[in-house]
Design brief:
CATH superfamily of the largest domain: FAD/NAD(P)-binding domain
Mean pLDDT: 95
Order of helices and strands: EHEEEHEEEEEHEHEHEHEEEEEEEH
Distance between the termini: 27 Å
Largest sheet: 7 strands, mixed
Number of domains: 2
CATH architecture of the largest domain: 3-Layer(bba) Sandwich
Radius of gyration: 21 Å
Strand content: 25-35%
Length: about 325
């Protein structure tokens, strides 16, 4: 890969469903896009096994294979793929600057941000061991695989309450582990959880270890008040303590909410910087699905094309 600085009409930061979809649309529109994949090419789907809820795959597909399909489709239309991380940006002028980890600064007329968000984890060694073998951070994505089984959800906020409520429709018993004696979730979500018969809330409870053989069989937990340890049997362990958007490098340039999600124009992909667009989970803290990310990637590319046309660049 050449270290020579280049200028692009459309530069895409991030390579999940949003980034690759943006690349497909931008390339077909003649924008000659480049995708900087970042540290995790393919995004969160690279740590996902079976994907059954993306249209067009009637038999399901493995997450990494799906992302390979996205990448090949983008490359088919001559998208340039660069396996590099962007370490800094400068959106102060009409020509945007992005700097790679190797300290090369490229320029672009438009930038599409598709850096996504990463799930927060407990940091347990066993959590990594059973990833995709019973451990998940997305009930909507993986809950179907645990239909009719007993599961555990960890967390006390709205995300955990939503995940537990969703799983309660599929599973006979949902154990919700809350590390304090109260939840941070909104009152309406707390009421929903407390009024669902097959959700059992374990207050003041933290996870010591996820247990299993080939897959998860349960979790060893501790009561933070009494210090009593116990085993909760379950075949699914859902971590629902939130996500962190991968947006730190944009904090001096793009408007964000209190959690670091980029704030765009409702129904569009515009940011507060002209010629800079956002797509995917970097600005979506509600849906966080591959199909919605891909949809916003399409929107960002179309918005970028219209912007470049209005400026007379294409």
């Amino acid at each position: 890969m050449s270290d020579e600085a280049k200028h692009y009409k459309c530069l895409i930061i991030g390579s999940g469903p949003a980034g690759y979809t943006a690349a497909v649309y931008a390339a077909r529109a003649g924008l000659d896009p480049v995708v900087f994949t970042g540290p995790e090419p393919g995004g969160q789907l690279m740590i996902t096994t079976e994907v059954e809820n993306y249209p067009g795959y009637p038999d399901g597909i493995q997450g990494p294979e799906m992302m390979e399909h996205f990448k090949k489709q983008a490359e088919r239309f001559d998208t340039e793929i660069r396996y590099e991380m962007i370490s800094g940006v400068d959106f102060s002028g009409p020509i945007h600057k992005v700097t790679t980890e190797s300290n090369v600064t490229h320029t672009a007329d438009t930038v599409i941000i598709s850096t996504g968000a990463s799930a927060k984890w407990l940091g347990l060694e066993s959590e990594t061991k059973y990833m995709n073998n019973g451990v998940s951070a997305c009930a909507v994505c993986d809950g179907f695989f645990f239909k009719g089984q007993e599961v555990i959800v960890v967390g006390g906020g709205d995300t955990a309450a939503e995940e537990a409520s969703y799983l309660a429709k599929l599973c006979p018993k949902v154990h919700l582990l809350v590390r304090r004696d109260e939840m941070r979730a909104s009152k309406i979500m707390q009421a929903r959880v407390k009024n669902t018969e097959n959700i059992e809330i374990h207050w003041n409870t933290s996870t010591l270890e996820i247990q299993g053989a080939e897959t998860v069989t349960g979790a060893k937990v501790i009561n933070n008040v009494t210090k009593e340890e116990s085993i909760i049997p379950a075949t699914g362990f859902f971590v629902a303590i939130g996500h962190k958007p991968n947006t730190d490098i944009f904090k001096d340039w793009i408007d964000m909410d209190e959690n670091g999600y980029l704030v765009g124009t409702p129904g569009r992909s515009f940011t507060n910087r002209e010629g800079v667009f956002v797509s995917g989970d970097a600005s979506d803290h509600i849906y966080r699905q591959a199909v919605t990310a891909a949809g916003t990637g399409c929107m960002a590319a179309l918005d970028a094309e219209r912007y470049l046309t209005e400026k007379g660049i294409v």
